[in-house]
Design brief:
This protein is mainly alpha-helical. It folds into two domains: about 35-160, no CATH class; about 170-305, no CATH class. The chain is built from ten helices and three strands. The chain has helices at about 35-55, 65-75, 80-110, 120-135, 150-160, 160-190, 195-215, 225-245, 250-275, 280-305, and strands at about 10-15, 15-20, 25-30. It has a three-stranded antiparallel sheet. Helix 2 runs antiparallel to helix 3 and helix 6 runs parallel beside helix 10 (about 280-305). It is globular and about 65 Å long. The model has no long low-confidence stretch (mean pLDDT about 85).
Length: about 300
Amino acid sequence: MNDEIPENGTMKVIDGVERIFYDGYWIKRYHAPVDNLSDKKLLIQSLTRRLFNHMEHGINIPGRLLDKVRTDYEIESDPRKKRVRGAMLAGALFNRAADIFKQLVELEACGVHIKPDNELMRTCGECLQEALELGKLARHRNGDAGIDELWGEPFKAFVMSIEDFYQSRYVKIALTMQNIDEVAEHMVGCLRNNHGLQEMESMIRHYACMARRKCEILRTDPDIFDAWVEFVVAGEAITRHTAEQAESKTGNDILDEFDARYMLEQGVELIADITRARTSMPSSTQQYLSLCEQFKSRKSRNVFN
């Protein structure tokens, strides 16, 4: 029996599905589309939409307003307002880059050959690069610190070949899967010595499994429909179970149960955020780890009281 760990990039057909190995995970593999400006435009547009879907509201500013948004950002003196204006400027820069790229694709469709050193291509790259830096000011829609990886993806898609971008995606998905499993382990670790641990642990691990499956599947893949349903149902099973447990408790036990319920629900939400974004969320994970440690500390004190 060969127990050697495969090298990253190893490909294998498992249960009829072509997969590629990265950092401990066999990830569903997709073939990259043809590398041309038209397909690259579609890829960047898709990544930009995904970015805005996960970021705080109000930063999806049209590119035509870039100059005004930049001026407002530069003259703002209040640090808290400047952060928001900086996030808005990042959004405007992304949309300006998308506007330029759209025009370049239309020119190419008319038979105009666009060279990589074209001035508009350079401007597009500069917009994306500046947006990447300012994107650090933006927050995730849940209010936590933003996700740098999401801001970097459109820029990577711009400077990389589509094939190379797809390869880099597998590394990111593996990191996302690691993050999902890390959060799940925190959830399970908080339930040690609890009654019904085995049942809840099984539910948490199943949820993590469904989350990993969901995050590896592209939205254009028909499998996404079943994957999404299974993922949502697995998460709801945990929250429903914790609610039922809380209702069955009385006296002091009910406070402990509500404490556990809150901790588990926060874990379910965090895994959902990570899965939908398809990127790791180290800042949010660290906050959740602190929440788990506080929970275990309270639980330990209650045991000795």
